[in-house]
Amino acid sequence: MDTVEITRLSKYSWFEIKYHGRIIHFDPGYAGYFENQKISEKEFEQKADLVLISHFHKDHLQPEALKRITGPETKIIASLNCADRLEKGAVLVKPGDVIEIGAGVMVHAVDAYNTPEGHSTKKFHHRGECVGYVLDLDGMRIYFAGDTDFIPEMRKIADVDIAFLPVGGTFTMDMGEAACAVAAIRPRFAIPMHQLQAELDDFKKESGIRPETEIITLKTGERKLLCGKK
């Protein structure tokens, strides 16, 4: 079976994806002391082929975390506001940029921001400064929202297999808004992230019964195999 392996590496937005021999990391960061004591160091022995970073906040980008997962051949793509925290060689992007990385891999940087009407209570993410990503990976499409409220641009994102959506409601949309995002995007799988104090299982209740979308909840250190293609 054509499967994708997803591992959660922090309670914020750090995820590892393995698919067709490639290793991709999203937002390798955390706040406070390195929290992943339950994760074996063997998890970091295989270095990433690609790292995608949505913005510079420490819960999304930590130099120590980046060193654990990168090697000489790792490609790093990050938002423009990460420039001061990355070494030379990283590709810096803004919403609308498209980067092709070899055969079968295309990275689309998309909008991620807080809105006045959004349910986030701390509006730290301004339009144009941070990004989300749509990753086309060997026929599979992944949407990683970054830190954002539910925004109009999400309605244009289509044919998504896996969507990573923040649900915490302080710096990002809350579960109600994230459920609206699920309804708009209609992914095959939706994975809540950046939940802060929220209970992940509550997201299933907020999203309701949607036959086209399966809600997958992962705790730090948990791994899940999903069917990669439609």
From TrEMBL:
<protein>
    <submittedName>
        <fullName>L-ascorbate metabolism protein UlaG, beta-lactamase superfamily</fullName>
    </submittedName>
</protein>
<dbReference type="InterPro" id="IPR036866">
    <property type="entry name" value="RibonucZ/Hydroxyglut_hydro"/>
</dbReference>
<dbReference type="InterPro" id="IPR050114">
    <property type="entry name" value="UPF0173_UPF0282_UlaG_hydrolase"/>
</dbReference>
<dbReference type="Pfam" id="PF13483">
    <property type="entry name" value="Lactamase_B_3"/>
</dbReference>
